[in-house]
Amino acid sequence: MQTILSIENLSKVYASGFRALTHVSLDIHRGEIFALLGPNGAGKTTLISIICGIVNASEGSVRVAGHDIVTDYRAARSLIGLVPQELTTDAFETVWATVSFSRGLFGKPANPAWIERVLRDLSLWEKRNNKIITLSGGMKRRVLIAKALAHEPQVLFLDEPTAGVDVELRRDMWKLVRGLKANGVTIILTTHYIDEAEEMADRIGVINAGEIMLVERKDALMRKLGRKQLTLQLDAPLSAIPAGLATWRLELANGGTELTYTYDTENERNDIIALLKNLTEAGIGFTDLKTSQSSLEDIFVSLVSKNPAAASRPATTSAEKNDKGQVTAR
C-alpha cells in the first residue's frame, strides 16, 4: 500500500530531561484508519504534536506525502488536519466565521459549499450563526472537528476526539470518519475507548514509554494475540485436575463444578476436539459449555503490563514545555 506518512527514528527529549519519544519509526498507509493506543504519558500526543508542527523533534524526520515537515513545512501542514484534546476556540466568533477562517489559514480559496457540507455532516448547520461561547461542550467539540476539516486535509489526526462527549456526537463523528475514509482521507486516531479502535481501525499501533511496541493489522493482531476461553459445566465436581490432563491449560472454578481451558484462536478447532476426547477418556462428563474471546482491550492491557520500560518511566505530569517555551500536554 502507498505510504502517506513516514516517521523515521523520531525522538523527543524535553528541556527538563524527560524523554517522551525514543527512536520511533512508523509508516501510515494512504486511506487507512490507524489507531494509536497507549496509556497516559506514553507519548501519543507528543508524537502527534511533532507531526503537526506544534513541538520540535530532538532527532529523526517526518514526511507527509513526500514533504518534510521541517524543510517543506507549508506543503506538509496543508495536508494535515488536527482535532486536539483541548477545547480551544475563539469564544466570540460565530461557528461559520471560525471554520471559514481555518480554511483561509492554509491558503485555500473560499468554498462556502464545502463549509456548509462539513457543518451539516456534524449537525452544526443550525448553529452556524451562533457565537461559540453559547455552545455546549459537545457542540464545541464538533466545531473543532469542522475546523480541522475546513481545508480538506488528506491526513486527519483525532486526538482523543470523543473523550467526555455524548453518544450522539460519537455516532455522528464515526459516520463522518467512515465517509472521509471512503473518499481517501487517512485517519490517525488516539482514544481511551478501545472498543472504538476495535470497531473502526484497519491497523493498530501500541506505544508505551515513548516506544512503539507493536504495529499490526487489527484482524491479524486478534488472531495472533487473541485468546479464547472454553468453560465446561461439569456433571460432577472435581477436587483436582487428573494427572493425564496436566499438559492442557486447565483450571477449576466454582468449587470444582467448572473447568476452563484457555487457548489460541489460531488452533481453535483441533485443540477443542482433542481436549474433549481426552476428557471423555478420563471419564469427565459435562452438561454445558460456552466460549468467550479476549477483546482488543485485553490484548492492549496485556502488552502494556509486560513492557518493562513502563516501570522505570517517570510519573506523568500534566504538561511539558516545548522548544518554543510553550506548554503542551502529553
Automatic annotation (TrEMBL):
Alphabetized UniProt keyword annotations: ATP-binding, Cell inner membrane, Cell membrane, Membrane, Nucleotide-binding, Transport
Pfam families referenced in this protein's UniProt entry, alphabetically: ABC_tran
Domain ABC transporter: 5-234
Gene3D superfamilies membership: P-loop containing nucleotide triphosphate hydrolases
InterPro entries for the chain: AAA+_ATPase (IPR003593), ABC_transporter-like_ATP-bd (IPR003439), ABC_transporter-like_CS (IPR017871), ABC_transporter_ATP-binding (IPR050763), P-loop_NTPase (IPR027417)
GO molecular function ontology, one term from the record: ATP binding
Signal sequence bounds: none
SMART domains: AAA
Sequence ranges of Low complexity compositional bias: 309-319
Region (Disordered): 309-330
Descriptive protein name: ABC-2 type transport system ATP-binding protein
Organism: Paraburkholderia lycopersici
